[in-house]
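Translate sequence into structure tokens.
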Amino acid sequence: MGRMGALKRCLRFLRRNPLIAVGGGLVLFVLVVTIFAEWIAPYGPVEPVPAYFEDPLYKGEPPSWAHPFGTNKLGYDMLSRVIYGGRVPLLVAGVATALSLLVGVLLGWLSGYFGGLLDRALSLVMDAMYSFPALILAIAIVAVLGPGIVNMVVAIFIVYIPTYFRVVRGQVLQVREMEFVEAGRAIGLSHARILFKHIAPNTITSVLAIVSFNVADAILTEAALSFLGLGLPPTVDPRDLWAADWGADVQAGQLALQSGQWWLITFPGLMIVVVSLGFGLLGEGINDWLNPRRRRV
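Result follows.
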């Protein structure tokens, strides 16, 4: 009865929050496919199909029953490339968002609570970073550090710190003036206890509403970096299961678009749209759920 009751409550929650249901379903689908890529994909990300070795002038094949997403001129099955291609953007976006969330929220708490010179200095730095378009700043950072997964994580992590900082700082500035905070100071509670036990919990909900949007934006930023050649270096090692990337495949596919090979750019680009849309819908649904004024009846 307990499990059935929990299942019914979950289904009732999803019916009342269709955006969370649709967005979460899309995200869950992409995550499952990506995680179990080795068991789902018919080929490896850089494993040529048999026809490639039979034809010395092989130029790729359009979508067919044998290869639903077609193949490229190197003989790579595009369905397999699309399935494996989610690993890099999801990893980069997930890790970068988690790091920017941690650092941005912590700095926002400290800046909003203590104020003074610390607040002015941090606000100045964050406002300066926020004034740059996120993609331009990420490109500049990766151009300095060099291409690679770690450097993309660092760039995207730095770019999105101000987003969390500004939201949390604004919330802390409001909460710290409330009576229960003044009461905590009056009875001699330490700053750490007041900040982390009484103020911080009242600012978390505002952050949760933007995390999913941030992940969607981070995926688009990672795709743009890969498209510009600042992502993973190309490899032909069949043992490398991280060799595919949607952004890199879009960049490679545009070169073959003039020759009529539309499938090389269409399917990787479609996956970028689907996963970004999924996280966007999920974020909008969470925002509606957390904000009673926007909650749909």
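Note: Residues 15-39+87-231+250-297 form a domain with the MetI-like fold fold (CATH 1.10.3720.10).
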